[in-house]
Design goal:
Blueprint: H1 3-60, E1 64-67, E2 85-87, E3 93-97, H2 99-114, E4 117-121, H3 134-146, E5 153-159, E6 162-172, H4 178-181, E7 191-200, H5 202-330, H6 332-359, H7 369-384, E8 387-392, H8 401-420, E9 426-433, E10 437-444, H9 455-470, E11 474-479, E12 485-492, H10 498-505
Parallel strand pairs: 8-9
Antiparallel strand pairs: 1-3, 2-3, 4-7, 5-6, 6-7, 9-10, 10-12, 11-12
Helix pairs in contact: 1-2, 1-5, 5-6, 5-10, 7-8, 8-9, 8-10
Bound molecules: heme C.
């Protein structure tokens, strides 16, 4: 998470906290207002019920007699009553007080001592003073139509610039009422009127203000604590984030440096590799050149042996034959010696020929590898007196002179090793080919010559392997089933590069 993202999160959290605390406060205040209204209504209701009980008591007695005074003068609305005013035996004057009259007087007392206003009223008042005002008229109409479900009406109203809870409870006509109210045509169960009670809200509001103040203060404190907590936590997290970002940056830098280092090293390695490869190439070229030189030298020596030494020996043989004939008549002993010399010279000629053939073997222009190997087999038989066979696949044709030379030299080397180190009496050479590769195998009996730890053998085997490689092939030297050695060489028909071909051919 980035730094900006964190800021947004913290602001959102603060907003949520504010909404939560504000919501709780609003709900509490609303509940409080409802309760305030409810308690005012209960106060009005209980005042009404008390009035009702007193009135019932008074009505139950058909009104009560009280001393007639200035505060309680005889009720002119009762003037039709025969015993409105009576005199006690001791001479005190008493007057009849009807329930409404009593209620009015009680309400007047209450208003003075409690601020609670009460009024007995009716839509059709006997006493015009009891007439209902607008609100009371509405309330009485509501009760008249709503009974028995609606048993009271209450609401908050303004009167003389003061707020009041106004309450209206019904006064239902009972049996006791009828003795004074029959003329108006009421029957039991009718609404005669009601008692309206007004509870001043000011004192309740004063108490509520205090509550509201303490509630707002308390909630604000909780809100502030929460905000401080969020801000503090936010700052700590921001610090962590900044630290983490810094660490990450450092790590990235380190990583980059490492990457650069790796790239640098890789570059160096590539350079070294290129150098090494070119060195290896140089070396291979050099080795090839060495092989080519040695091949050329051998051919030169072979040609010299054949042309020069062979010619001279032939000349010597002819001369010695002539000498032998001359001596035939003169001395039998000398003639026999000359014949001996002639034979020795002929043997030398044969050996020179086979030597020269060995040195310049594959005369590609006049025959190729198969006749060369046939000749090699024959001379091996003659020279070493061992059993040597050659079995080429029918119509095998090796066009490439470089392959011919290499395969010939590998065969030559294998034969030399078999005779010199393997003490072989039997050597079998086979040459085959398919679409992909030539296969040459030289199987010899006797000992496994690859095991002999001779320096020249080692060199010979290495050169063998090198020749195979130069043709893109390989040499495998293994032990024969009945002892001895099998040298097998495989080289692809398609040569890897023309360069080597021409190199070997030079
Ligand atoms: C002793 C006679 C008497 C009895 C009993 C009596 N009243 Fe009345 N009442 C009066 C007189 C007289 C007035 C009108 C003068 C006044 O305001 O006192 C009046 C007024 C009222 C008023 C006020 C409205 C107006 O018409 O001025 C109501 C409401 C009322 N009576 C209801 C009742 C009910 C309900 C009962 C039965 C529970 C009852 N009274 C029993 C005599 C009586």
């Amino acid at each position: 998470m980035g730094f900006g993202g964190l800021k947004v999160h913290i602001l959102v959290l603060m907003g949520l906290w504010t909404i939560l605390v504000g919501g709780v406060l609003a709900w509490t205040l609303f509940r409080h207002a409802v309760e305030m209204f409810e308690s005012a209504r209960l106060e009005a209701q209980s005042a009404f019920e008390k009035d009702l009980v007193y009135r019932r008591w008074a009505a139950g007695h058909g009104g009560v007699y009280v001393p007639a005074t200035d505060e309680t003068p005889p009720n002119k609305h009762l003037s039709h009553m025969p015993e409105r005013d009576i005199t006690t035996p001791s001479g005190r004057r008493l007057t009849l007080v009807n329930p409404a009259y009593m209620t009015r007087q009680v309400h007047a007392l209450g208003a003075v001592s409690y601020g609670l206003k009460g009024k007995i009223t009716s839509l059709n008042p006997v006493n015009p003073n009891n007439a209902a005002d607008d609100w009371e008229t509405d309330a009485l109409e509501t009760l008249k139509t709503g009974l028995p479900e609606v048993t009271e009406v209450s609401s908050l109203e303004m009167m003389d610039g003061q707020e009041y809870l106004r309450f209206m409870g019904p006064l239902v006509t009972e049996e006791g009422c009828l003795q004074c109210h029959t003329e108006q045509g009421y029957r039991v169960g009718d609404i005669r009127g009601g008692i309206s009670v007004s509870v001043p809200m000011a004192p309740l509001r004063a108490v509520a203000r205090k509550h509201v103040f303490s509630m707002v203060a308390g909630h604000s404190l909780i809100w502030l604590l929460g905000m401080a907590g969020i801000a503090g936590a936010g700052r700590r997290i921001a610090l962590h984030v900044r630290e983490r970002d810094r660490a990450q940056e450092a790590l990235e830098k380190q990583h980059q440096r490492l990457e650069e280092l790796v790239q640098e090293r890789t570059g160096q390695l590539r350079q070294t590799n290129i150098k090494l490869t070119s060195e290896i190439d140089d070396r291979k070229r050099l080795e090839q050149e060495l092989l080519d030189i040695s091949e050329r030298e051998q051919r030169r020596i072979g040609r010299q042996l054949h042309d020069s030494l062979g010619q001279q020996l032939t000349g010597a043989a002819i001369m010695s034959k002539v000498l032998q004939r001359k001596l035939d008549g003169a001395s039998a002993a000398h003639s026999a010696e000359a014949a001996q010399i002639t034979r020795l010279i002929n043997e030398a000629i044969d050996q020179t020929r086979s030597l020269s053939r060995g040195l310049q073997p594959v005369d590609v222009e006049s025959g190729g590898l198969v006749p060369a190997l046939e000749m090699l087999t024959a001379s091996t038989r003659d020279l070493f007196g061992i059993d040597c066979t050659f079995t080429p696949d029918a119509d095998i044709q090796i066009e490439d002179p470089a392959i011919g030379i290499n395969l010939y030299r590998i065969t030559q080397e294998a034969i030399t090793n078999a005779i010199k180190h393997g003490q072989s009496k039997q050597i079998d050479i086979s040459l085959g080919a398919d679409d992909e590769a030539y296969r040459l195998a030289i199987a010899s009996d006797g000992k496994d010559f690859s095991l002999s730890a001779d320096d020249t053998t080692g060199m010979g085997l290495r050169i063998m392997a090198y020749r195979a490689q130069a043709m893109g092939g390989s040499v495998d030297i293994s032990r024969g089933a009945d002892g001895g050695t099998i040298v097998s060489c495989r080289c692809p028909v398609e040569q890897p590069s023309k360069k080597r071909e021409s190199g070997a051919n030079s």
